[in-house]
Design a protein that fits this description.
Elements lengths: L1 H26 L4 E11 L3 E2 L5 E3 L2 E11 L4 E7 L3 E7 L4 E9 L2 E7 L6 E17 L4 E3 L2 E14 L4 E10 L2 E6 L2 E7 L3 E10 L1
Antiparallel strand pairs: 1-4, 1-15, 2-14, 3-6, 4-5, 5-8, 6-7, 7-9, 8-9, 9-11, 10-13, 11-12, 12-15, 13-14
C-alpha cells in the first residue's frame, strides 16, 4: 500500500511539474518589448487666438520600448525624431511659418489576457519640446508643453517573439501664442496618432 501511495504521489508531483513547466515555457518571455511603427498624426488644431492657426497632418516614424513588471502591467516609452510642420493661419491667407516638435511620452499599460491576441490600454504623460520656430516677426510660442496621453492597442503574435502591432493614441499638446510680447491665446495640437508596426519581445 505504501509503495502504491508513493508511486501515486510521485506521479502527481511529476504531472504538476510537467504542467507548470509547460505553462512557464509558454509564458516565459523576456520583460522587454521593442516596437517600430509607422504613425499617422492627425492634429485637432484648436485655436483661441482668432488667427485660425493649424499645423499639417503627416506620417511619422515611431519607436517604443516597453518593460513588463508583471504579465499584465508594463511601462512604455514612446520616441520619435523632431518633426517639422508648416504653420498656417486661415485669417492671414495660408502658411505663415514652420516649427519642429519632439513629443516623447511615458505610459503605464494594462495588457489583457485573451486567446490569440494581446489587447492593452495605457495612460500617461507627454512632454513636447518645440524648436526651430520660424514665425512672423513679433510672434512667438511657449516652447514646452506637458499633457496627458491615452492609448489603446493590440499585439497579434506572428511567432513566439514577433508581433504585429496596431495602436491608437490621443496626446494633449498645446502652447501659448504671443504677439508683441503679450499672450494672444492658446493653440492646441491635441493629435490622434494611429500606428501600425512590428514588435519583438525578449
Amino acid at each position: 500500500m505504501n509503495k502504491k501511495m508513493n508511486l501515486l504521489a510521485l506521479a502527481a508531483v511529476a504531472s504538476c511539474a510537467l504542467t507548470s513547466g509547460a505553462a512557464f515555457a509558454q509564458d516565459a518571455q523576456g520583460p522587454w518589448l521593442v516596437r517600430a511603427r509607422a504613425v499617422n498624426l492627425d492634429s485637432a488644431n484648436k485655436d483661441t487666438t482668432g488667427l485660425g492657426l493649424s499645423v499639417n497632418d503627416k506620417a511619422i516614424p515611431e519607436v517604443d520600448v516597453s518593460y513588463f513588471f508583471t504579465k499584465n502591467i508594463a511601462a512604455e516609452l514612446i520616441l520619435t525624431v523632431p518633426q517639422k510642420h508648416d504653420v498656417r493661419a486661415s485669417t492671414l491667407g495660408g502658411k505663415i511659418g514652420t516649427l519642429k516638435h519632439l513629443p516623447p511620452s511615458l505610459l503605464l499599460q494594462y495588457h489583457f489576457d485573451a486567446p490569440g491576441f494581446k489587447p492593452y490600454v495605457g495612460a500617461g504623460l507627454n512632454y513636447t519640446r518645440f524648436s526651430s520656430v520660424h514665425l512672423p516677426a513679433g510672434v512667438g510660442i511657449d516652447k514646452s508643453s506637458w499633457g496627458a496621453a491615452l492609448q489603446a492597442g493590440v499585439d497579434i503574435p506572428l511567432s513566439r517573439n514577433l508581433y504585429l502591432n496596431v495602436d491608437v493614441k490621443k496626446v494633449y499638446i498645446q502652447t501659448d501664442v504671443f504677439a508683441g510680447g503679450a499672450k494672444a491665446g492658446t493653440f492646441k495640437v491635441d493629435p490622434v496618432l494611429f500606428g501600425i508596426g512590428l514588435g519583438y519581445r525578449f
